[in-house]
């Protein structure tokens, strides 16, 4: 899943006497799928119960006592002590289950607040099942399905082109075809439509 972008922006030239509307998240997520927040050192500031269970398995630790454990586990998963640049999605095991860790750097809108890292842990099986269902439902060609698989992983056009051994323009063409089939107008819309496909 993608973390919601802002659906609206305040007007740069608001009318006199009118306040610009506050933007709202474009995507709402169940509590189990909400991102977890850390600083650039991967020290957690917010972790939901689902993520806590995944990161501390098989030990069920309470959040106040497990901050150092979570920080160490995140550093192991991301293979880094600090996160100051975008990190591609990383697959990891917790027990016998495989998950994907997606990260996003959140820069302060105003002022000099420090960077915040948002992390989303997702069961990989769900993604694979959704891709299979979406390919059948939307009649995606093998190359379109492959393109979607890379989009779900958060890869850029250039990265997808390299993996598929095609030009960036060909990737853009595949993305446009998929948009037409799933009814999405953005890449985030495609990913949302695909991940909503579950038998």
Topology, pairings included?
Layout: E1 36-38, E2 44-46, H1 49-56, H2 67-78, E3 90-94, E4 97-106, E5 116-123, H3 124-137, H4 142-152, H5 157-164, H6 168-182, H7 187-195
Antiparallel strand pairs: 1-2, 1-5, 3-4, 4-5
Helix pairs in contact: 3-4, 4-6, 5-6, 6-7
How many helices in DSSP terms?
7
Strand content: 5-15%
What number of structural domains do the residues give?
2
What is the CA–CA distance across the termini? 17 Å
Average of the residue pLDDT scores? 76
Order of helices and strands: EEHHEEEHHHHH
* Radius of gyration over all CA atoms, rounded: 19 Å
Class of secondary structure makeup: alpha+beta
Report the top-level CATH class of the largest domain.
Alpha Beta
Q: How many beta-strand segments?
A: 5
CATH structural fold name of the largest domain? Beta-Lactamase
Strand adjacency order, main sheet: 2-1-5-4-3
Q: Residue ranges: pLDDT <50 for 5 or more in a row? A: 1-32
The helix content is: 25-40%
Shape: globular
CATH architecture of the largest domain: 2-Layer Sandwich
The major pleated sheet works out as: 5 strands, antiparallel
